[in-house]
Amino acid sequence: MDKFRVALSTNDYLIIIAYFVSVLVIGFKTKTESNSIKDYLVAGRSLTLPAFVASLVSTFYGGVLGIGEFTYRFGLAGWFLYAFPYYIFVILFALYLSDRVRKAHLYTIPDKLNRVYGKKVGILGGFFVFLMSTPAPYLFIMGILISLVFSVKLLTAMVFALLVSVLYLIKGGLRADVRVNMFEFVMMFVGFGIILPFCFNTLGGFEYLDSRLPEADLSLLGNSTLQYFLVWFFLGSWVLVDPSFHQRCYAAKRKSTPKIGILISLGFWILFDFLTTTAGLYSKAFFLNDLKDPILSFPAIAEKVLPPIAKGVFYVGMIATVMSSLHSYIFISATTFGRDILSRIKNQDDYNNTFNKIGLLISAVLSLFLAYTIPSVVNIWYTVGTLVVPALLIGVVSAYFDKLRVESKYIFLAMISSFFVSLISFVLGSLHKDSVYPLGLEPMYPGLIIGMIIYLFGYSQKSKMRTEPD
Fold it and tell me: What is the arithmetic mean of pLDDT over 301-329?
């Protein structure tokens, strides 16, 4: 398999083109009530429960080819490493954070950090959120899918994906983002729901998987070490600081929507994990070690089992899954850069959303650069999570619980120290040919430990606590 090629019928192409046209029509037809910050950034705080669920589910599940790669490489352990830990932290967010975020009536995570800990912490938090919300991995995946379908160069495909994702956001803001998400939510489930029956009928049931897959691929840990599992488990805490969760909570219409909506969303994520993981296992069982590029495991199995029309629907399912995250995180990244970094540095309120629109352009260009220069989905997730999650976790969680707050200087020092210690550990390990990190610890651990030590010292000084004004 020197070069993977996709065989699509005319009907398949028509289905895929119809999807892109539908996205643009829905996005551009979205009506905005005003040009206010509230309307542009949080849809006037008007998200109903169905809109909340559809938007959150589709936004937070975008790296579909990365899931295919993970399942192909690790088998069932891919689900246990990457998906299961998130379930735990999704429940924690729903039960303990969602109401607090909704009641804050803010716009972004850095808004909360700025209100509680002051401008320096707010800007630092904005920088970390900007890194976390980079749409680069989703842009890379979209580029792969579009280049496969239309036989164009990867760069051309990514530029097209950006244009389709960004244009309607400039005017429509979060309202347009959410309306397109709702359409994509339906298509992602239809697309992945269609492939499993064909896998069952063409290849066989679960006995086929059992007879073809190596034993390690059907075990929860596979060949992974306990430490590697624990790193991925703690990376599940990404949920607690993920800007898409906070943004949707800020935008909810009713105070009960976030908690109920997140728990309902979890049910949909579990269902979608079943669909994607099972499809990935079928791909591994069919190809075994013959697939040179595991990131293509879903397109590859589709070539073997899907007839025309069904294949077009499946490709739309993959594209919708990725694109929902691409435009949502472009919007979050743009908001973070424009409102939370640029606006605060300049000490100017962004009443006309000018900085946000500048942020859209900068976010799009930067994500294109990163996706083109670092073409590895799983590595981007792992690296960003390892460096940023420990730094943000301390500041964000403490900001929402009065009893956990400490003086601003300790939070600033804990956040920046956590990031740089993890970064240094990561760089030192990367310089070693076998990626052996200092003391044998994954980079996340020393950063988290240093950050917690500084935070706990600050907590011991609570009697002298002084928070900076807004």
Answer: 96
